[in-house]
Amino acid sequence: MRIASFNINGVKARLPRLLEWLEERRPAVACLQEIKSQDETFPAEEFAKIGYHAIWHGQKGFNGVAILADGAPPVEIARGLPGDPEDVQSRLIEAEVNGVHIVNLYLPNGNPQPGPKFDYKLAWMARLRTRMQELLAAERPTVVLGDYNVIPHDRDTFSVRAMAADALMQPESRDAYFRLLADGWTDAIDTLNPQGGVWTFWDYQAGAWQRDHGFRIDHLLLSPQAADRLVAAGVDKDYRGREKASDHAPVWVELA
């Protein structure tokens, strides 16, 4: 069972590339972030034409997440991250697909830091940890995946110096991410690539793609019950180089 994550950076703007990837790679589950679409304008019918059923949690102009499942509708469990009733940003959706609990998230970027955006990022991560602890207690196969906007290790960026002041790599961001792992989650990409050097994002600026100046911020975290079924994980890097591509590449995990 292949479960994938793709920050699409505008579902309507990237629709041809997205449909191309879905048909060529055919993941059982595809989790999208930054769909940048209101609920009523999400192009669900386009995915239905190629056999994918969708649920989504949209927002006008930015954010937004969706879960696509091949062949059968995902069973929605929740939308939105609990813990702050005043937070209305569309950043998380949960569903059950083929016996696996899927949590698709788009974690706040946090820049510029320090400041209120960075404070929001850290508060969001604290709330996420609470939710993920509840999921661990359920003792079911669970995958929490998406754009975490955290570069966990120095080996996860082309240049530590270039990213040193960025919210993605601050000690507080990393500490919040490592607390998730310490609770019992497995970072699938890192586990299978301990030497690092695996990128999931390349900026549109400064020829980052052409120079391979990327970093890893899209992660697939597995509960112990899912980690026991881990077969493979990787990045569909080539899709970043196609015409009018997202600045992220799809990441995926395969479970037995």
In short:
With 256 residues, this protein is of the alpha+beta class. It has a single domain (2-255), classed as Endonuclease/exonuclease/phosphatase (Deoxyribonuclease I, Chain A, 4-Layer Sandwich). Helices cover 25% and strands 27% of the residues.
List the helices and strands and how they pair.
Layout: E1 2-7, H1 15-25, E2 29-33, H2 44-48, E3 52-57, E4 65-70, E5 75-79, E6 92-97, E7 100-106, H3 116-138, E8 142-147, H4 160-163, H5 171-183, E9 186-187, H6 188-192, E10 201-202, E11 214-215, E12 218-222, H7 224-227, E13 230-235, E14 251-255
Parallel strand pairs: 1-2, 7-8
Antiparallel strand pairs: 1-14, 2-4, 3-4, 5-6, 6-7, 8-12, 9-12, 10-11, 13-14
Walk me through this protein's architecture.
This protein is of the alpha+beta class and about 260 residues long. It has one domain (about 1-255): Deoxyribonuclease I, Chain A. The protein has helices at about 15-25, 45-50, 115-140, 160-165, 170-185, 190, 225; strands at about 1-5, 30-35, 50-55, 65-70, 75-80, 90-95, 100-105, 140-145, 185, 200, 215, 220, 230-235, 250-255. The strands form three sheets. Strands 3-4-2-1-14-13 form a six-stranded mixed β-sheet. β3 (about 50-55) and β4 (about 65-70) form a beta hairpin. It is globular. The chain starts with a strand and ends with a strand. The mean pLDDT is about 100. This is Exodeoxyribonuclease III. Belongs to the DNA repair enzymes AP/ExoA family. It holds the Pfam family Exo_endo_phos. Keywords: Hydrolase, Magnesium, Manganese, Metal-binding.
